[in-house]
What does this fold into?
Amino acid sequence: MKKIIASFMAIIMLLTFAVPALAADKTKLVVNGKTVSGVEFKTIKGIIYIPLKNTKTIFGVSSSFHKESNTVVVGTGIDVAKKQKRATTTRLIVNGKITTGVNISTLNNTPYVPLLKLAPTLSATASWKDQTKTVTITLKSSTSSTAGTVGLESMKIALSKYGKGVSLTSASSKIITQYQNQFFSKSRTPLSLDKIAKAVAQGEIAKDVTKFQSSIVNLTFVDIDQITETKLSNGQTVTHAIGHTGGKYNEMTESWVDSTYYQIFYLGSTKIFKGSGTTVNGVPIGKSTIDLVSNVGVEYTAPMYVVVAGNFLNSIDEYDIRKEASDNNTGPILFPDELSDAQKALEKLSVTMSDGKLKILDEWGVDLKIKSIQVMDYEYAISSPISLPNKYEGGLSIELDSLKNSNGESFAPVNGVVYFIKIVTDAGEVIRSESLS
It folds into this structure.
């Protein structure tokens, strides 16, 4: 029995010494000359580690762990992590770049990062003084945390003054903070959010803007109706604009009708003027209203969707940037005026229901390609885009009963009832309300 106990104790002692040296130190932290508390330190084999959550306290950047790829993301880069295969040892991505030479430890299912090695990847300097057990961190003024803080503060000021009661939601603030460099850095490129922003079909935001408050979206063909640059109380310049997509121009009232309106806030100056066609990459944060005049001169109020933009540029400038980037690629590049013709064709698309058929006619003849056709909850099966015949060829006619719902039932319209028709093309989408004629 004594031999068994002795053997058991020997195993316990062996396991104890096999675990890396781990201690919760009373380490002092000084960041930019100020003592910072609330940070948990652990020393593993002589290296000081902090839990992932503490990067926000020290460096002002959020962090996350992408379980599927076994990746720690500090700052931006979750989109990069999602594209990676699962790593056998935990990978580190800092502001979109895969970083090597920094070992990640996991304790009680919590990732820990080595503080002194992490600091340089965030453009900070770090030092350790053994006598006083002090870590000193110096953040450069140009770090993303500074840009993000100033940017968010500027947006809040501008929104309080011009946003008609719309303010940043917690979800919007979180996604903007995650990509703060791309939104607010003075050195950001004109299309810094290009690979992050998701294209949104015209009218989708209007259906429910709250679904997009944590998303970065791409808006194209936004024609500017008003634009102003304002110097805020914090010394920053914000461009504030109102623009629209879609609709028809009424010469009598000199205004657009049946359009979707956007109010855009952008940190900095632009080369955009009233009447410019623009591209916007940003976060829709809420809905306000705009006062308009109808076809017959009656004043009315329409919804307007507020967007905090990281990119806000002329369509022609976007074209120049893309052309330069694709000089070595094959295939045609569409010029802004060609895109404008496609958009005009979409706006004037004739859609009717008669004689048991849905008829679609392109008055402009720009060879639109139809990707999907939907009437209420009924869809027309399209395996590949359909080239829309021009008006001289009679356009496109499809049998109404060929549209099916999710149960396989055919569309059977009733006289006198108005139905919403959604047509998605390679130039965007259009929504019409029609009844049998």
